[in-house]
Amino acid sequence: MIPAFAVLALFFTLLTLSASFPFTPRDTIPSGEKLLILPLGDSITFGYRPGFNNGTDGYRLELSKRLSGTSFEFIGTVHSGNMSNNANEGHPDFKISQIGAVMEPALDMGPNIVLVHAGTNDINKAQTQEEPYSTAPQRLGTFVDQIIAKVPDAVILVARIIQAENDDTNSRIGPFNDAIPGVMKSRIETGHKIAIVDQSVITEDELADGLHPSEAGYAHMGDIWFNAIQNASVTFKDQSPFLATGPAQSRRHLGPRR
């Protein structure tokens, strides 16, 4: 099996070389070197928006557009949205531990890139004695350990989660996000291909209902994931840790895509 970071490096090298020429979508990676991307999380990964109970394409639509010059596939046991390639592992209303309890079949599909956006329900719902707000970052660490155990060669991109409209929820999102780099530090230092992706730049003006992104918010998330994958292709060439930040300053979507 070709390591994920080698596939990524080849992809973006070829994409750069092809930038000045017209290209046919998905023709820049030789056959057999496909990026297998597992979108993993809760309703935000599922693509939930009010009025779309069966989900939308979410951030996967914009990400697929940005990746259209290579061979890739979204994988997972869940299907939501209208794209033909609409697989994911997004479980609405699930906390981190609940996602971890059902994600093994998706990990068995052999992803080489895992996009993790999890923790919103741990922070937004009422805490319990077993799962208090204060230990949510540690639960995320355990969750990532489960992924590593199943797909040790995968690139795992872990999001600082998006913001919420509710001030009380937001007051807990900040500390949760701030704790993620420390939680992941030891795992990165032992050589695992983990990077932190700052999705917290998605703010309340890009939300549809105070918790889930609007169409523009999901497009913004897709841009950020793409940049993180692009950064990973460079970073993991030498196995060094990095903090991936999205194109919030250079490319902020304030309206629906045309």
UniProtKB/TrEMBL annotation:
Pfam families membership: Lipase_GDSL_2 (PF13472)
Residue intervals of the SGNH hydrolase-type esterase domain: 40-219
Molecular functions (GO terms): phosphatidylcholine lysophospholipase activity
Stored SUPFAM superfamilies: SGNH hydrolase (SSF52266)
InterPro entries: Ester_Hydrolysis_Enzymes (IPR051532), SGNH_hydro (IPR013830), SGNH_hydro_sf (IPR036514)
Signal sequence interval, chain numbering: 1-20
Alphabetized UniProt keyword annotations: Signal
Protein name according to UniProt: Carbohydrate esterase family 3 protein
Organism of this sequence: Lophiostoma macrostomum CBS 122681
